[in-house]
Design a protein that fits this description.
- With 252 residues, this protein is α/β, with parallel strands linked by helices.
- Helix content is 37%, strand content 17%.
- A 6-stranded parallel sheet has the order 7-6-5-8-9-10, with helices on both faces.
- β9, α7 and β10 form a beta-alpha-beta unit.
- α3 crosses α8.
- It is globular.
């Protein structure tokens, strides 16, 4: 009700993706602009010399077979359960790969699993993985987060049809090869085989196969990494600010 009232009273409404725009009543479409607020593309980028020091003291370096996953909190809305179900096969078939998981154990969307304090403990019971190779970093400082993206060989981003995470765009800006779910609004940013790879959200086996292909043939996907950076250059903070400034300065 409040959202509808705001749409009635505003001069201009803003949504960051076309998919979110499409969910509003058609009568308001002309009033709603699609403008992404922007990410700090100037601070993000690849670094072939990047090193990530893990809490154990182990050092992961750019160029090594590192699989990364990032979410504000580890939960099904962001496909954490699907990601975890893909790991046993990935770890079995690529014995030298390492997995880095960033995210807290609280709930941003949805609810906690029955009988468990959080989704991490729930999925660790279901999916047996080697704790020496799967590293849960929790919530980390931004500089460390940048290193996670820079050492990534395959970055997994999964989501229900929902608000698009900044982390996916930040991964693309960092030159990551993003393996993402074929769901809206991911499809607005990633064209599979051109600037990333898309898989069925509900298919852990397909996710595992795609990640393994990326780990085994990293050079074959270098063009996709560069294309991802080019795509996200349109989502800089400067461009977002400029678009908002232009809207504010418009005369009714």
């Amino acid at each position: 009700g409040l959202h509808l009232l705001n749409l009635e009273l505003c001069d201009i409404a803003v949504t960051p993706t076309r998919w979110q725009h499409s969910l509003h009543p058609e009568v308001y479409w002309d009033r709603i602009r699609v403008v992404h607020e922007g990410i700090n593309t100037g601070l993000l980028g690849p670094d072939t010399e990047a090193e990530l020091v893990l809490p154990s003291g182990k050092v992961l370096k750019a160029g090594q077979p590192v699989v990364t996953y990032v979410s504000r909190n580890l939960e099904p809305y962001r496909g954490f359960h699907i990601f975890m179900r893909s790991l046993p096969e990935i770890l079995r078939r690529h014995p030298s790969c390492e997995v880095v998981v960033v995210g807290g154990n609280e709930v941003s969307y949805g609810k906690r699993p029955e009988g468990f304090p959080d989704w991490k403990s729930r999925m660790l019971q279901e999916c047996r993985v080697d704790p020496k190779r799967v590293h849960f970093l929790g919530k980390i400082p931004y500089d460390l987060y940048r290193k996670v993206l820079q050492v990534s060989a395959a970055h997994v981003y999964l989501t229900y049809p929902f608000v698009l995470s900044w982390s996916m765009l930040e991964a693309m800006a960092s030159g990551c090869l993003v393996v993402a779910s074929d769901t809206p609004p991911v499809r607005e940013m990633i064209r599979s085989g051109e600037n990333g790879l898309l898989v069925d959200f509900f298919n852990p086996a397909q996710l595992a196969e795609q990640v393994l292909e990326v780990l085994e043939k990293p050079a074959a996907f270098s063009v996709l990494r560069e294309a991802a950076r080019h795509t996200v250059s349109a989502c800089s903070i400067d461009r977002g600010n400029a678009a908002y400034r232009d809207m504010i300065m418009e005369r009714p």
